[in-house]
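Reopening this ticket.

The earlier resolution said the output was attached, but the attachment link was broken on my side. Pasting everything inline this time so it's all in one place.
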Amino acid sequence: MEAASFPQLLARDLDGHEAALPSDLPGELTVVLIAFERDHQRLVDSWVRWLEERAALDPRLRFVEIPTIGLRWVPARPAIDGGMRSAVRDAVARRRTLTVYTDVRRVTAALGISDRDTIWLGLVDHGGRVRWSGSGGFDRSTAASLEAALADTTDRTWAPGAEQFEMAFDARFRIALAGAGITPATAHVTLSQDRLVACFGPWDCHTTPANVREVSVTGPYRWYRAVGVRLSLADRGLTFGSSVTAGVCLQFRHPVHGLDPLGLLSHPNLTLTVAEPERFAAAVRRHAGLHDRP
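Inline output:
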């Protein structure tokens, strides 16, 4: 059966950052939990622990909560979103809660939702296709079905030859980085013939190897210039840094987005402190069709 497509929606997280869905969903695979009523939050919350544990084991996986609210409530959005924000103290939870104000039929018609008295769950891939769907609060049967769907996406989600590179984490900075949601489970780079995706906690950067014009291994760095998410004031270059030892700088043919959620700021280069810089650099050059260097 043909997979459903997730509808194109404008959303905003509880810190006020806008997102265009499904393109801005945070994972290679994202579990989307859609709530229609205020009291649906308890159903959403019943899934959080299981999803956090599952995402810690599967670096492809993220999840978001999407309260879906009718257009008549748009004038009250500052009060509604502000009330949600005051109730959610955790920064990561605020970033994964995306409110959508729309004609709710745009959502229900696209996803085949017939029951708005409970929440909807969907497993959405990076192309916006819904690979699995379910409804209701956590139960082991539904969780097992979702687990099976995750396992079944392995071959179809990763293109042949796709590689994943972990980030190097300096022990001195692990606690500080974790406070921003940046951990070994949430920081990694996926590379294939047609995509290069760098994930760094709540931030990510998407492009293609064909957009890379130059690759160089760099470092060591000063910690205050390299650790965390850094923007160069000199050239607007972006750094996803978790170590000061070494990294790989990618120069782009066309600037990319990665720091500004509104897409107003673009970056001509990206530095990544991957755990295997030489191997990563060689792989990018191979996929980009650049001459490898000894």
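Reporter confirms the inline version is readable. The CA atoms of residues 217 and 248 lie 4 Å apart. Residues 41-57 form the longest helix (17 residues).
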